Task: structure prediction
Amino acid sequence: DQQVKQNSPSLSVQEGRISILNCDYTNSMFDYFLWYKKYPAEGPTFLISISSIKDKNEDGRFTVFLNKSAKHLSLHIVPSQPGDSAVYFCAASGPGTYKYIFGTGTRLKVLA
Amino acid sequence: EPEVTQTPSHQVTQMGQEVILRCVPISNHLYFYWYRQILGQKVEFLVSFYNNEISEKSEIFDDQFSVERPDGSNFTLKIRSTKLEDSAMYFCASTQTGGLTEAFFGQGTRLTVV
Result:
């Protein structure tokens, strides 16, 4: 059941540059998408979300883009900071359910 | 800032034993969830709970699992007879409303079944 996929298990970026994390989904009924950040031995921390009626949402250094026709979303972090080094999960939810379907995560390493 | 708290942080148990994982959701939240993450795998939904009853559960959440909100503040996950494959990080989460809102997760309980 791979309804939400993050095809890049890891990503390395220089400090100050842009980090772009990608996520693809297969279920066209999903209407709410989220990005979570996770440090080892901690729970996921909410970063940013977007509903399917929008194609962009911005919060400080974090911007999420949603391309519904391609069933693709991305998280842009700019400028990237060493403290951003963590595993990033995208998650999706659909109508009639409050559960999230998570992707497998992308480990971001921001190099100083 | 309000947070979801989970206890214990780490639980080691013998196969076949019962375990209870505890969570205190954010106080004004109404929807409660358990997720788990087996080492190296993705976070998986187990169950959601609203108005003192299960609203949704996954196929993982079989008869060995149960949830309860015994006193209006705690939210517990019980595994009746643990198996080796139950070893995972278990995360509790809560939301203020249902749908189109972010869930707040606890720091997790690492369950090790030996």
